[in-house]
Amino acid sequence: MMRFLCKLIEGRAMSASTYNISIERNVDFCLVLTLKDDTGTAIDVTNATIDSEIKQDYYLPTIQTFTVTKVTPASGLIKLTLTAAQTAILHPGPLKYDVLVKYADGTIQKILKGAVAIDTNISTLS
Predict the structure, then answer these.
(1) Contact (CB, 8 A) for 60 and 105
(2) Is residue 1 a contact partner of residue 38, using CB atoms and an 8 Å limit?
(3) How far is CA 49 from CA 75, 97, 110, in A?
(4) Which residues does 39 contact at the CB level (< 8 Å), separation at least 6?
C-alpha cells in the first residue's frame, strides 16, 4: 500500500485520496506532493510518468493540464503548477481534477482526486 502526502493529506494506493483545491484566477498556482509507501519510505518516481488534468467530468474535454515537475524524483517529491495565464481561463462552476502515475513497471495508479473551486480576484494587475 502507498500513502500519498501533501501537507496533511494522506491517501492509500487502492483508492485515490480526495483533496479539494481552490485556485485563484489570474495568479500562479502550485501544489507540492510527496509520495511515500505505508512505511513512510519515499517512492522513487524517477522513471514514472505523471499526469494531472482539470475537467468538468471524465468524459468531457480537458480544460487545463497541470505542469508536473519531479522536484526530487528519488524522494517522491513532485510539484503541480499552473501559470497565471492558465488560471485565467478557468471558470467558476463544478470542476474536478486527478493525478495519475504510470510507474516503470507499467502499473498505473490514481493517487489523488478532488473538486476544484475557482476563486475570482477583486484586484487586477495589467
Answers:
(1) no
(2) yes
(3) 15, 17, 12
(4) none
Q: What is the pLDDT of residue 126?
A: 63
Instruction: Take residue 93 and report the three cell numbers written for it.
Output: 462552476
Q: In the predicted model, what is the mean pLDDT of residues 37-65?
A: 90
Cβ proximity of 84 and 92 under 8 Å: no
Strand partners, 2: 37
Q: How far apart are CA 78 and CA 28, in angstroms?
A: 17
Alpha carbon distance 103, 31 (integer Å): 21
Among 65, 83, 80, smallest CA distance to 28 is for: 83
C-beta separation of 23 from 116 below 8 A: yes
